[in-house]
Amino acid sequence: MKKLILPFLAVTLAAASLVGCSGSPAAGSSAVQSKAAVSASDTSAVSGQVTCSGSSALQPLVQAAADSFQEKNPDVSVMVNAGGSGTGLQNVSDKTVDIGDSDLFAEEKLDSAKASALEDHIVCVVGVAAVVNPKVDVSNVTKQQLLDIFTGKTTNWKELGGKDQKIVIINRPVSSGTRALFKKYALEGKGEAAGVALTEDNSGILKQNVAQTPGAIAYLAFSYLTDSTVKSLSIDGVKPTYDNIYSGRYGVWGYEHMYTYGKATGAAKAFLNYIQGPDCEKVIAEKGYGLSQKMTVKRSAPGAKQ
To answer: Cβ atoms within 10 A of the Cβ of 173, count?
Structure first.
């Protein structure tokens, strides 16, 4: 009889233990999961398709995260396209993609009704630098000199202490978030001179054009400055680095946003949890982006309460 009772008691105690572990947290314990725990739970057994479009400045990170996420979740397909922040915001507002990638707050590109329908997911920080052809022998400009270049007042590098060489401006299109950040924080909101600049839609191709065009100047997200193909300029003696952005010394930067129409669900939610989670912090740094949590200065959407 004892032989029958002892195994029964063991099974009963084990079952009670399992019930206790799966129930509500004990008094005094936290009911809030860590970001790592949320990420792990939300990316298990995920399936479906996620479509993203928008910022070319953010594209390298989103693509790298998508590749890694799909390895961990083989039943998910993540499609990443560029096109500019304005395009991404319009696409997600129209519900033609699941996620709209943007260098700007939605309120800076869309009307208030459309912007309010979107959910913002800030994933990192991106710096923007003025870049020149490697053979341009100027390494530092003042903010006023930069403004004079892009508004067409200064047209030759010799006016800035360089050699006698025409300045060739290469811009991003008006839909570009990188262009908007550069205009707002480097050019103090002043409009670029019409008819004096070339325009290139893709940041990667723009980088190649600057490298191949004598006297060229443009601007690029730090995520494209991972080699010596082009040369970045200091502004007022401050180098474009994340340490200088974190400390507030270099002001040409913005948050990188991934917007969804309303609350994220399904595979899109799992992907966003992944890219915002600890697994991607190393990738963020390796791909040339900054970590939001290191910022000592903050920025808010237009109209938001400080």
So the answer is: 14
